[in-house]
């Protein structure tokens, strides 16, 4: 853990902890995961809850979180992070527990664990990165893949008639009584980064107040999986992902804010 000494004007010395490790980020250039990681660590640092925070990372790109986040993190089987987070939270109810998951993990193999943890209102934070594709394992179609979007398993585009519609998992769980705070953000511009950080801080404060489950979706790009450069992927995300997955708060203080 890197500690940076800062000299205050009155010559008093205090320490600021950097909660990102020194490991070089291994995500594809332009990926939103690195920014999302930084935001989570900044919030934990600013709230002064480092020693009381435990993260859960499952399978997929998100499994790399424990290489970069300098807090206690354990790994869960594919899709099972909310179940493991439930166990940890109930064992140590005064800790701050968060999961960090991708769309293939959370909304496909982990659908049951996600739905039931949210329905029970577990006092945890779920951070859900949605890039509409299985980024780590070959660019396969995910539950959140858009209509007509090409992937390695939908080379001619997602056909609604045979493959179903994209799953708006965030709107779905917002309607469950156990969820207290549900929001959808992004991290591709400075303005959106600030909003995402505010949302993450709200979520951890909800844990402190024992309000129940906070769910934060971060719509991100996957420029390598989408076969685009970073700028192209950000533009494509704005033009195609945001209309289907609109940004903003969906549920605040247990009350729905927008139609689901």
Key features of this structure:
single chain; 260 residues; alpha/beta; Rossmann fold; eight-stranded mixed beta sheet; two-stranded antiparallel ribbon; 9 helices; 12 strands; 35% helix; disordered N terminus; THDP-binding; oxidoreductase; TPP_enzyme_TPP-bd
Please sum up the structure shown.
The protein is an alpha/beta fold and 260 residues long.
Overview of the molecule:
The protein has nine helices and twelve strands. The protein is an alpha/beta fold and 260 residues long. It has one domain: Thiamin diphosphate (ThDP)-binding fold, Pyr/PP domains (Rossmann fold, 3-Layer(aba) Sandwich), CATH 3.40.50.970. Strands 4-3-5-6-10-9-11-12 form an eight-stranded mixed beta sheet, with helices on both faces.
